[in-house]
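Bug #77: duplicate submission created two jobs. Keeping one. Sequence:
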Amino acid sequence: MSIIKLHSTYFKKYISEEKIAEAVDSMVEQITEDCKGETPVFVGILNGSFMLVADLVRKYNYNCTVSFVKLASYVGTSSTGKIKQLVGLNEDLEGKTVIILEDIIDTGNTLQEIYDIFSGRKLKQLKIATLFFKPDVFKKELKIDYIGIPIPDKFIIGYGLDYDGLGRNLASIYQLTTPPKMKNIVLFGPPGAGKGTQADMLKKKYNLLHISTGDVFRSNINNKTELGILAKSFMDNGNLVPDEVTINMLKAEVDKNSNANGFIFDGFPRTKSQAKALDEFLEEKGEIVSGMIALEVPENLLVTRLLERGKISGRIDDQDESKIRNRFNEYNTKTAVLKDYYQIQGKYFGANGVGTIDDITIRLSEIIDQL
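Kept job's structure:
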């Protein structure tokens, strides 16, 4: 994910997992060169450095020892400048080379405290390594021996760094960003659940645009757009329209309405790959899927409802119970995958789809109002 939400704050991806690994490799290479014939003591500063320490010492192919100490100066998204007491280092370091491993150095207040603490330990030498360094706010005349990635003075999370306790487990680095402006809903429901009806109700209530995959396909084919002609060529040959074509149709529809308050996506995404593509497309615009809402209705009730609808509409696919059941099997298979995908992001919401149109709209609105 390129945009995430922790507590009520949004962050966008800033430094990839691959770039971090390259920086760690470079630091290991420099340390290895400087510590030939020695057994350095790596000292990680908790809590933020635990991922750096784990990756760095695994890549260091010579003898070393590892310890951790705790020094904390952060509250929320800003540094207080107040350093807490050192905890955790009790071994004799006299005559040894100690390499401090820091997750990030900004003002240098923590670094100064470290220098003061180790000044009376009779070390052979003290070296400082930090994965991230903010040169614009560094205030101390202190040497930093190994720097992974210099960065601007912006608050970051991930790879051990947190925001009020969250985000340390992220493999990449994220930085503060502005909240998304759109409300984008993925509306899901089995055949006959009333998805289209509810989409019409909700788009009026929340001033959103309803994008139905079926309508978009028909529009492109009827208007003989380039994508419509391409899609029809697959359909005429009895083949499924590739994800790329479907996604490009949806992108074009969104781009035509870039000033919208948000979108209700109906019938899309249908697969995990489509869901990822939608995420990536919206994130390029600084937006996200706000939530996936699935209308939940007992299958037997829907079968009865569709058979009755078939008598009135004349739709062949609503007149054969076995075909209707097959449609449900397909829906359940696809929904299970998408449910897991959105649940991991905390964006899946099930809603009781039994009742009057107004009752169901109220239930859906209660979910949307919380997004």
